[in-house]
Amino acid sequence: MRTPDQANTIDRGAAGLDRRELNVALYRKLYLIRAAENSIRKNYRSDVMKTPMHMSTGEEAIVAGVCQALAPSDQVLGTYRSHGLYLAKTGETDRFFAEMYGKATGMAKGKGGSMHLTSPADGLICTSAIVASTIPVAVGAAFANKVQKNGRLTAVFFGDGAIDEGVFWESLNCACAMKLPVLFVCEDNGYAVHSPAGQRHGYDSIAAIAAKFRCNVFSEETTDAEVIHDLTRAAVGSIRTNERPSFLYLKYYRYLEHVGVNEDFDQGYRSRQEYERWAKVDPLKVTQIKLGQWLSQSDIGELERPIDEQIAESVRKAVEAPFASAESAYEDLVV
Amino acid sequence: MSRALSYRDALNEAMAQEMRRDPGVFVYGIDVGDHKRIFNSTKGLVEEFGSDRCFSTPLSEDAMAGFGLGAAANGLRPVHVHMRVDFLLLAVNQLVNMAATHLYGSGGVMPVPMVVRAIIGRGWGQSFQHSKSLQSWFAHIPGLKVVMPATPRDAKGMLIAAIRDDNPVVFIEHRWLYDVEGDVPEEPDPMPLDGAQVLREGTDVTVAATSWMNVEAVHAANILARHGVSVEVVDCRSISPFDADTVLKSVAKTGHCIVADNDWVHCGFSAEVAAQVYQGCFGRLKSPVERIGYAPTLCPCTRPLENEFYPDARDIIRAVERKLSLSESDLTGEDFYSYENKFKGPF
To answer: Which among A221, B41, B42, B239 could disulfide-bond with A251, CB atoms 3.0 to 4.6 Å apart, if both were Cys?
Structure first.
């Protein structure tokens, strides 16, 4: 396993950015996700968006850090909690909000909703409402990339609940046996829906178990997107050099309820104190403080302003867009 | 040019020709590359195309089905083989929740050109976990195509068409059909995945059949012909989409319909065929639609009980006689299919 010190020795990002540029790029992603979800939270109560929202708030550093370290042509797959992944990989908000509002201009014409986000042109193959179900798909996508020798890498994001599923183990085994260019990204928020890890796991450390497979394992507990970026760079580098999959284990804290836009600290299964410990190292705060080395408060505001405008414009377009025609319910079933 | 070829060799030829034509086609699954080569239907493929394009996998049906989806999403054309359709049950999540929905969920942008070959086991005591058929399960799901070729020509042509099709296709092969021989063109000849066909023309009774039951139906028709009864056999071939028109046209002519499905009757494909016939031929039916299928129990191992489980040409003959109010003909001396003819264990 790599330590953060080793990871920090890598001083340039995937796109050849220096540390200031890298943190600016990361902050743009972090802010885009947080602000887009804040817009959803603000408008969800009016019941216009009729789709079950699984919010990424609190998770932003992982998707921002990992996606920043990937090449644009690299591919990703996610879960039903993939607003953050979509926004980090695509930077796109028109089709995103249109899908949330169920409109014809959404990527699935409103037929998928919050849990089914795709953007093949940006490398987002799919997200899924069934736990662990995109993991083997990523392995097959990686097989195709290897056969086609296109140098693309496939990263698949899943929660620690996915490890409870047999298909996770089948997929990890297959990827290791076939030496496929896959990056497994386990995002552990400590709960599978509401069940704590201790109740579900007959083991202590998934990273330690993964290390017994023929793959490279990286593990970190941080909300610093830059550290996650560097760790991902190392994980990606290992895939390239030793032709083994990499397994990245990261912890985060889900700020809101499992599904929905509200807090749920009054439900008894977790405490506000726990949240407050994580909020002190909120991913946006951490990167803001770093940016303070180079940027003033108003410079940071200038980074945020165009993102706020982009979101407002996308929401406006989504609200105004038509619903798909009744016939479209029957389209896209078979080619 | 066509020549006689077995169903197994027709499948093998389809695979080889498509793999030559398109470097994106690959075949994989448990034991696909071992010395037995899926009852020889994948023989020669490792040798000609290498182990990147024909390979055995971990015993992970669920993951390997998702693997096919991922490979298909990235432009390859996977053919995933299951030696028994029963094993495919381990992959239903990937097939039904993922592969069948991928195009829809991507707004029509990402097609899934994958084929799932599944073999129906039968005989030599296969018992209750190596004997299912399950076409109605898969045909129930929008987004999946389901076909059951019954002749060597269709085995080749429909497999080629399935590989070239941009949708997930469940391709169900009956183990007993592997030894059936018939005319098969040498050149690649895709056959439609959405059409039934009249296998044997007749005027008195229509038998709409699936898979192996076509062999039994044609055998029954040949015997009945000697007793002056003319049976038309319609091979449904495609379970989804189902070409009801070809069946309706036949029933409109004969006025009698027997559905011989290679599956259980309850909630099976035979119920769908019957419903379509009632709806489309209501005024022309001279008798109620009769359905023939597996006995309403699990498949038993021991031979005397296994005989009780599977319907055959005798059941079809008796059903035809009932429809036409004929007395039971004497079947003494008639030969009926038995796996002892060509097929020996353990598979």
So the answer is: A221
Mention every residue, 6+ apart, whose C-beta is less than 8 A from residue B221.
B200, B202, B207, B231, B232, B233
Sign of the CA dihedral B30, B35, B39, B45? positive
Q: Does B62 touch chain A (CB under 8 A)?
A: yes
Neighbour tally for A58: CB within 10 Å: 22
Give yes or no for a contact between A203 and A168, defined as CB atoms under 8 angstroms apart.
no
Q: What is the pLDDT of residue A14?
A: 55
Q: Is B18 a catalytic residue?
A: no
SS3 content of chain B, % helix, strand, coil (to 5): 40, 20, 40
Q: Which pLDDT score, from 0 to 100, does residue A275 have?
A: 95
| C-alpha to C-alpha distance for B70 and B67, rounded to whole angstroms | 5
CA–CA min distance B69, chain A (Å): 6
Q: Where are the alpha helices (DSSP H) in chain A?
A: 4-8, 19-44, 60-69, 83-90, 94-100, 135-148, 166-177, 197-200, 206-210, 225-242, 272-279, 283-291, 297-320
The structure tokens listed for A286 are 């951490």
Tell me what the mean pLDDT of segment A172-196 comes to: 95
Smallest Cα distance from A132 to chain B, Å: 10
Mean pLDDT of B121-134: 89
Over residues B276-305, mean pLDDT: 96
Q: Is the pLDDT of residue A12 over 60?
A: no
Q: Which of A112, A133, A174 sits opposite B97 (nearest CB)?
A: A133
> What are the backbone dihedrals phi and psi of residue B316, each rounded to the nearest 5 degrees, phi first?
-70, -40
- Taking CA atoms, B191 is separated from B21, B238, B251, in Å, by 17, 11, 24
The SS3 of residue B68 is helix
- DSSP assignment letter at A212: T
Model pLDDT, residue B142: 97
Token pair 């996998």: residue: B57
Q: Token match 């018939």: residue?
A: B182
DSSP, res B127:
G
CA triplet B157, B161, B164: central angle to 5 degrees?
145
Distance from C-alpha of B189 to C-alpha of B181, rounded to nearest angstrom: 17
Residue B107 in tokens: 């707004």
- B160 in reach of chain A (CB within 8 A): no
For the record, the structure tokens of A43 come out as 């408008």
Q: Are B155 and B179 in contact (CB under 8 A)?
A: no
Average pLDDT value for chain A: 94
Contact A120, A113 (CB under 8 A): no
